[in-house]
Amino acid sequence: MRLGMVGLGRMGGNMTVRLIGHGHDVVAYDRAEDAVRLAASAGAESASSLQELVSKLAAPRVAWLMVPAGAPTQATIDELSASLGDGDVIVDGGNSFYKDSIRRAEELASLGIGFVDCGTSGGIWGLENGYCLMVGGPADAVAIVEPAFRALAPEGGYAHVGRSGAGHFTKMVHNGIEYGLLAAYGEGFEILERSGFDLDLRQLASIWRHGSVVRSWLLDLLGEALARDPGLASIRGYVEDSGEGRWSVMAAIDEDVPAPITSLALFNRFASRQDESFSAKVIAALRQEFGGHAVQPEANEKDEG
Predict the structure, then answer these.
(1) pTM of the full predicted structure?
(2) Cis bond leading into 60, ω under 30°?
(3) What DSSP character marks residue 298?
(4) What is the rounded CA–CA span in Å between residue 69 and residue 250?
(5) Catalytic positions, please?
(6) For residue 149, what pLDDT band results from cuts at 50, 70 and 90?
(7) Nearest CA to 89 among 10, 173, 20, 1?
């Protein structure tokens, strides 16, 4: 099939290459001209604007978005919808909030444009291994794009999971689970690292990959990271979040589902960004006030002496 790819970053660029490798034609657009040239070198047809991208597609036209969630996605959809028409399809493969996807599907349906929300997992390894695709939207719109879904996903890695919003909802929960898994590995390996046994963490990550009940692809990746940098000395323990963990906690609250692991994993990411915790300062000050417990001076105060 022939489709347009909007957004050629780490995910969109690799997806473009994989689609071309599976025999599909891709018209590629990104605000960064270098990204468009790179896609063209892989066999994509370049477009210098969204309007030009649409003009190079045949009905039913399919525009696949891999742009940041929120305002950038909304602005792109608004601009595309002015050029698309009845029977065309917009696919949002980014990490949009599922309630936004439900609203966008309704708004685009009033214009005769199909909307498909595609939760996409696979990261930078998707080009080689394929992407896990959780697809939401009307069956007729999904059917139009299905050849691309099957090219991008490995065997068994794609499903039409439900109505509009279901794709991004399931990807949101997927990432909430990921938060908990990452936190568990992080805590476990910190306990190992702090122990007095002088353990080889790379060795442990390696043997746990074979026969252990905690083996996983994440553990494979950790073993590779430790092989390159045994003490992870080159990495700062600062962990961002892209929104899905927050939304998963919100959904748990909405549905009265106890989700302490996901919640704690999210809040631990916030804690990782603090050079100094004011909360900890308050606790230390209170312990000194009520119990006379010793406090540690700030580093600059300690150095002045």
Answers:
(1) 0.90
(2) yes
(3) P
(4) 17
(5) 171, 178
(6) very high
(7) 1
